[in-house]
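Sorry to interrupt, but I need a hand with the structure work. Leave the record below and I will have a look:
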Amino acid sequence: MDFDEYRRYDATGLAKLVADKEVTAAELLTLARERAAEVNPRINAIVRDIPVAPADQRQGPFAGVPFLIKDIAQDYAGLPTSQGSRALMSTPVAEHATVVQRWLDAGLVIFGKTNLPEFGAKGITESEAWGPARNPWDLQRTPGGSSGGSAAAVAAGIVPCAGANDGGGSTRIPAACCGLVGLKPGRGLTPLGPASGEAMHGAAVQGVVSRTVRDTAAMLDVICGGEPFGPYVPALPPKPFASCVGEDPGRLRIGVRVPSAINPNPHPEAFAAVEATVRVLSDLGHHVDELPRAPYDDDALARDFLLTWFVHLAWDVEQTKQLTGAGNESFERDTLIMAALGRATSGIDYVDAVERRHEHTRRLSTFFESYDLLLTPTLATPPPRVGEFDLPVPLQRAADALLKTRTARMLRYTKIVDDMVDKNLGWVPYTQLANLTGRPAISLPLHWTADSLPLGVQFVAPLAGESLLIRLAAQLEQALPWSDRDAPL
């Protein structure tokens, strides 16, 4: 097998070749490593090598398939989990994360860890610890974040799918930037242990980015389900998710919304992505309605998301300092700004924001009384350029002065916060809804811009809607195939 043939297969296809003894796991790993050596210097997707034991003895549904994991919440025993931070670059972990163990038990050959922003706190992948990851469709643009390294590796053909996770869009945003499938399962369906019971009150979940719907479904079968020390015993579907691929989703009623309170005027390509999707949905017999307003208070939800995110980031910084003895110099300026804002938040305000999730959830549930799915763009703009969200130099100096004088709580009264919010959420205002409400959502690569850049669309489903999302995604994949599109790398 050569690389051109390797790239034509998804993980499910490669696993069958191994099972049928048409190719060996060692051969596949060699091809993946050779491709990584060729393209990783340009895309900076893989940031840590993982030594691999002989792979030809693996068992499981994905035995012998090369795989990469994200360097946060996907611990690999004996190696550091950097979380994209200089402070954690040399601190090894003692045991595999449950999700990593399940991937290993499925026979996947994990040979590297992928790039991300510090603590996964941005929708772009540009950490000071590892440097920026780059989009294989245009090396001047971001692959998104926080699972940007994984998405770049898959889009570049190093592996057919890779580990991701999602606390505010971190699977769906990179999938949309890189022309991939990105499913965020519902709250509690995938494990965060053993190091954590749940992250961000359940807003963060595990998953993958992949080229095909059947890989996404089969990987969910591999990792879903509770764990003895977890907070939930999740309800599992009566049959495997993979069996939903190819099943008729039925005639669905879908509500569509493109403008948002954070970005009332999305890029024309965001409208074009949704319009193209609506045409296909209508041709397939689905009923689609344009919504006059969002079915939830998107402005309030964005504020609640950011407030809780900043508080959690403050906690991450403090936990890291206690574990490593690191000082502020080991963290990025933007991280310290967000952490300072988190520390300046009162306990009452924090609990108030967490409790308001129920209000957002009730509004969305009311919407689902009339509709099966909510459709939005995944991105409000095409993938931004690397470095586009750097703070202007005057704001950098102002932030440094406030951080140095320990008056960083004053940051919330400056233009710095508005600048960070507008830039960091303005291009991705749609994804946080599914995290705060715990609902499943998927990004599908159904549109390419006039400049040949991917720009995905998102479907949000009600509770236990993963199977429905998979059925519809597979139907759309059949109508508008995308897996044969190769990034020009």
Remarks:
- The mean pLDDT is 95.
- The chain is about 40% helix and 10% strand.
- Residues 3-253+442-479 form a domain with the Amidase signature (AS) enzymes fold (CATH 3.90.1300.10).
